[in-house]
Amino acid sequence: MQIKTLAATNFKNIADARLEFSSKANCFLGDNGMGKSNLLDAIYYLSFCKSFSGLADSAVARQGEDFMTLRGTYERRGADEEVTVGLQPGRRKSVRRGGKEYDRLSAHIGVFPLVMVSPSDQELVSGSGEERRRFMDQVISQADAVYLDHLIRYDRALTQRNKMLRDRVVDHHLYEAVELALARSASYITRARSKWVGELTEIFRPIYAAIAADGEAPALELKGHLAADAEALPELLDQCRRHDEAVGHTSVGPHRDDVALWLNGLPVRRAASQGQCKSYTVALRLAQWTFLERSAGFKPLLLLDDVFDKLDASRVERLMEMVCGDRFGQIFITDTNRGHLDSIMERAGGDHRSWLVERGVFTPNQRD
Predict the structure, then answer these.
(1) Segment 85-110, tens digit of pLDDT
(2) 315-323 own/partner pairs: CB under 8 Å, 24+ apart
(3) Which of 23, 140, 168, 327 is the most exposed place for a label (fewest CB within 10 A)?
(4) pTM
């Protein structure tokens, strides 16, 4: 799969941009804050119907403007497709594929898969379990629409149970009904997560080894109340009822899951250097890409935002060899270092394009 063209109007600091992409390497060079990452975020938005940065839709439109539009043309499974997104005050967000608007935005997730590697990936190591759950959910949801449906159902039932706890509801039968819905989705979610962690670990290890080249032993492990028994939630909820009533929220279930990240038998967040942490998170994202490729049956987009920061020269070299080879399909790379991007374009051969970025304006590099 590839995105052939992108038109963006009033997206963040991009007033108006019309870009035609290479099928292989697309590089964006500029100082920080000029709009390189915003361009990648626009591509991300077309796949996920939201900003990678977590901005609310109300904050995505360019300052001083009251609407935003994105239009991307893709080649997917040998056919051309168009995706458009529109935002206007007082109107429902419009996402269209082939001119037809979605009734449910969740139906769009996974249709145009992509992986974004960014500096914020450091939160996968240093952040809370919520960051790693979000990572799990995003990856599995792109590959498994049933999983996404169960996530939505679980969150709905969880919200209902938490409200009952806060309202001091004492009807045992009402709790049973809500907890039955929780348990049904929890079982599917837990089994899917357990399977995914196993599959991703096998993909992740050789990728990390190729970047780090130092014989380290990384590992992933699902941590959660149901990791040992996916069917145990009803009993756990019953045992924790009084505690949950006291604290006003549900204390057990997949919403408390985490993924333990290990390196040489020690937690990455405590034992790894900055370079090791960066290698770890980049390898996780490239493993995510491989997992999605296997699930979708075609190559997802790969977006690399400031990916070389905190990596020593040897790790940068090995990473460039990897992403510029035949393994990955269409890639988008941002950097402030022209040397990195020139090297990538040289390795990519004739199939590459680059832009100089300044204040949301994208000027094609005349050297291409």
Answers:
(1) 999 988 889 999 999 999 899 999 99
(2) 315/211, 315/212, 315/213, 315/275, 315/278, 315/279, 316/340, 318/210, 318/211, 318/213, 319/211, 319/282, 320/344, 320/347, 321/347, 322/207, 322/210, 322/211, 322/286
(3) 168
(4) 0.92
